[in-house]
Design a protein that fits this description.
- The chain has about 170 residues and is of the alpha+beta class.
- The chain has one domain: Aminopeptidase, CATH 3.40.630.30.
- About 30% of the residues lie in helices and about 30% in strands.
- A hairpin with a 5-residue loop joins β3 and β4.
- The longest helix has 18 residues.
- It is globular and about 40 Å long.
- The two termini are about 30 Å apart.
Length: about 170
């Protein structure tokens, strides 16, 4: 298994997910505000479990994945950030890129946590995968995430339909 690094910022700890995170992870994915722009359907307990296991597989096979985002002061899991490669059937394709993604629990949104966490994750990825193309896909109605994408250095390059929703594709 690939070693999952632990990254520290002023307010956050980014670390690998553990099986002990499942209950907090399930709570994160039960927020309508989280799933609204990511498929729109509330995941089942089984789907959240599969997502948790998929993250371990990403790290194992690709050497990158998603980090659990823990607030250092409280020790609570407040979200996740990281990279994936889902081999999506879409045009333009993001296959082979480090596709960035982030989600912070709604009660903790608006405090700069997504920007802080993604900035640390990007710095790590830039060291590990120098020169590799980095992308992200953001629903056009998700104004906070559109702002985060721009703050962390992504520029909009195209639009696409994904799960019947209009999305912007960004590149860094």
């Amino acid at each position: 298994m690939t070693h999952i690094p632990t990254l520290t910022t002023d307010r956050l700890l980014l670390r690998g997910h553990t099986l002990d995170d499942f209950d907090e992870f399930l709570e994160l994915w039960k927020h309508k505000e989280i799933v609204r722009f990511i498929g729109g359907e509330m995941p089942t307990r089984e789907q959240v479990w599969a997502r948790l296991l998929r993250y371990a597989g990403l790290w194992h096979h690709l050497g990158f994945g998603f980090f659990a985002v823990e607030e250092r002061q409280s020790g609570r899991l407040i979200g996740e950030v990281g990279f994936l490669d889902l081999h999506r059937d879409m045009t333009p394709m993001t296959e082979g890129t480090l596709e960035a993604g982030w989600g912070i629990t709604p009660p903790m949104q608006g405090k700069g946590y997504a920007t802080e966490a993604m900035s640390a994750a990007i710095a790590w990825a830039d060291r590990q995968f120098a020169g590799r193309r980095m992308t992200c896909i953001v629903d056009l109605e998700n104004l906070p995430s559109l702002r985060v994408a721009e703050k962390i250095g992504f520029r909009r390059i195209d639009e696409l339909m994904l799960k019947d929703r209009s999305n912007a594709i960004f590149e860094r």
